[in-house]
User: Fold this.
Amino acid sequence: MVDARHEDVNNVEGVAMLDNSSGDEKALPFDLGIRWDAGAPLPHLFQSEYRTFLTFYLYEQDPDWNGAYSASARIAIIEWRGCFGTMLGWPNDEALSGHRLWESGLKEVGYYGAAEVRNSSWIAEIEKGNSVHPQHKPERFAALRHYILLFHDSTFECLAEGYTITKVFMPRSEVLLQLAHRLIEG
Assistant:
């Protein structure tokens, strides 16, 4: 039997912990309200033109766990609302100091943390590129936020208007299948 307990955290809007009024691009520590497994979070990205999900193992134990082996695990699912673009891959934790924002605040975020990028050059780049569209609306890009999540073997970056976090306790294979179905069903 699959234990599929869900804990929804709806409309989570994190708050960057520092202010950046200088106008320079800067990665600021960001509290998502969850911690992922530092050793093997195994992030998976599911994305279509209309929906984006990121899932990974959490660093927390089920409070009802009795010590017996279970295929179920504490997993986070983040649905990125109004997602405009994502990247999942380089750098891993051993090459993180090579990230272009390392000296612009990412170093202070630390390994296995989250950041929000203020004055994002990525957002500026896509807004500029889209400005040739006859119905270009700069306010659409003003609503975007640039998030970075630092995992053990990869880094995730996302441009989105916000996110919703759901925590589940169930086998990872079931989570992945459910997310694939959610993308197919729209």
Remarks:
- The chain has one domain: 5-15+26-185.
- Residues 60 and 74 are 7 Å apart (CA to CA).
- The radius of gyration is 17 Å.
